[in-house]
# Entry
Amino acid sequence: MNSVPRIRLLGPIIIEGAGPASHASESRKALALLGYLISQSRPIARSHLAGLFWSECSESRGRRNLTRELARLAACLPSCLHTDLHVVGWASKENFWLDTTTFLEFTSKITSQSARLPRISQNPWFAGPDIGEAQAARLAEAIALYRGEFMTGVYLDGCRQFEVWLLQEREYWQQLAFAALDALINYHGARRQYDRARVYARRWLALDPYSEDAHRHVLTLLALEGERGAALSHYLSCRHLLFEELGVEPSRETVALYERIRRGELDPAPESRAVGGATGAESEFGSQRRRDPRPREIATASAADRCDLPGTEPLYGRSGELAVLQRWLRCASTTTDRPGWWSSTRSSAAARLERWPPEPAMRRWTTGG
# Structure
């Protein structure tokens, strides 16, 4: 039993399971004509098609060129067209599998029923309709079908009306894909599945590097995963890209999100942090939030009494951490290729750490006076 021919228009045009596809793929006009006819809901007059694709020719010559390209399509896809002396139309979509038809089926719920769906409430940083697990799976399949812009690589010189139509079609399908990606990001983000949400956010940026909606999703997800530094770095990259390529600054919404991340308002909640092993910094220095074991009067001693390094916390009872710092400073002072002042400064700091803590401060801590 022969399989149903499959035609993919979301991305470079691909024709599978048909006749000799080379007859059509060798001609850009034939591919453009194929995509145009599939996208129409009714037969199109031959005179209109001749003017759309061969506007530089007379009508009679344009109609002859049209007949030639239609013959190529018929050889590649038998019975795909309904033609007569006046009109041409796509014969039957039921006899072919079309990625555009499947894509519309998978995304129809978020486009036609979005207002009736419940809203996301699990996570304050994500909004939109709560699509549910089944619809999320369908949207994921839809995004897998969207390989790129509609009819990628199809450009026809001298066919202005066709180019206008093609740009409108590409915008239509692109906006559907972005809506599906937005719904998937919000769905997974609301359930704290940040890694999966970030995959779709990166996919969005791959399709449209200038989308601030996608950039804001990436910023939010990085911050909620505890990667505030990466989020701030991503904002700077986004700002540079927008200014260099488009000559604009990020929107107020993007800047406001950046400021909130910089203030730490999107840091992950304690229960959402990864469990099972400290980070590299914590493994050598311990938790920075560890409770100070010293008596209150010692913990609140002035900086002048504790050390001669203003603005720092005394390294009380941290011999292991001191050893690590001393080792790092010695390595820096012996291997650096910086000027002499840099090396001498680090050597001086290492020597001061070896004499830590100063005797007067230690006497005060131990005697309470």
